[in-house]
Design brief:
The protein is built from seven helices and seven strands. With 153 residues, it is of the alpha/beta class. It starts with 8 loop residues before the first helix and ends with a strand.
Length: 153
């Protein structure tokens, strides 16, 4: 009887990242390796990011963060360094955004929380306009702030 095991680079990378995460809890010196593995995994995967992958991208300065909430809420508080590209005013704000951010830029879109659909909607609009390297941080600013990560506004 043979046992079929799923193989491939994506699975190996995920397993490697999982091992690093487990080991980083044992040895603090592995935390930098964990961050590097999280960034590499987040850059390769499409779709949604968890809090740890999002924070790794933030710390590595390798992504542009986009707040999909209204401008009013954005100005009250947002992830440090994020750009406002609200779902409701996307068509008005996009021309300026597209002049500042190259089409190959890694973009992380977020809104309030996981039940908020604005981030996914803005991500789809960005992809429709040629941006292919788009991820959604589903936890939103609530999860980010609850973790004590940098916000401003």
């Amino acid at each position: 009887m043979s046992l079929n095991i799923i193989s491939g680079k994506p699975l190996r990378r995920k397993l490697f990242a999982a091992v690093i995460i487990l080991l980083s809890g044992i040895s603090p010196s592995l935390s930098q390796l964990h961050a590097a593995a999280s960034v590499a995994l987040a850059k390769e995967e499409s779709g949604e990011l968890d809090l740890f992958a999002t924070k790794a991208l933030f710390d590595s300065h390798s992504a542009c963060f986009v707040d999909a909430r209204s401008e009013y809420v954005y100005y009250k508080s947002h992830i440090k360094g994020a750009i406002s590209l609200s779902d409701s005013r996307f068509d008005e704000q996009f021309p300026d955004f597209s002049q500042k951010k190259a089409i190959e830029t890694l973009i992380v879109v977020y809104c309030t929380e996981s039940s908020c659909g604005m981030a996914r909607h803005v991500a789809k609009k960005l992809m429709k306009n040629g941006y292919r390297n788009v991820r959604v941080f589903s936890g939103g600013i609530i999860e980010w702030a609850h973790a004590g990560f940098p916000i401003e506004g």
